[in-house]
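Suppose you are handed a protein chain with no further information: no name, no annotation, nothing but its sequence. What can you learn? This example shows the usual starting point.
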Amino acid sequence: FSIFEFKFSFMRKLIILFLFFSINLFANDFTRAETLYKQEKYALAKPIFEKIINREIPAHIIYEDEKTLAFLDIYPSVPGHTLVIPKNPTEFVWDLPASDYESLMAVSQKIALNLRGKLPQKYVHMSVVGTDVPHAHIHLIPFDTTKDFHNPDRMNHEPDHEQLAKMADLLRIS
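A reasonable first move is to predict its three-dimensional structure. Written in structure tokens, the prediction is:
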């Protein structure tokens, strides 16, 4: 056997094995295959905030109650940049049921006052943008001047999780 013949023979065996298992899977358990496909498709399409709520991915959470969650933005405009989200998976803030909207605003106020009390910045910017993630959310950004939070370069670097963890410890509300 030459190396080429070995590679060809090995690849042919892999393809035959793959086809056998694929046919067997679909012939014997089409429903299971379809279920797995749907689960995988949903997992890929699930918005990142829903994954944070479900603790499927890590976040630097500073506040949580039955209706809302607040965590640090991993690409902060400035240290302390916080996102406040409803646990109700609604795309637009304006489409939330009144009680969820009121809770989101009350928690945003609570977090903003916490940011102002624990950080040196005098102001807290609040914005509802909703174009990046299809889940309602509010940005709270501590600042002294408006140029403080306009930082377009921030997403070109890896998140500093050590710094985020320290900031989360400082800002966490129990």
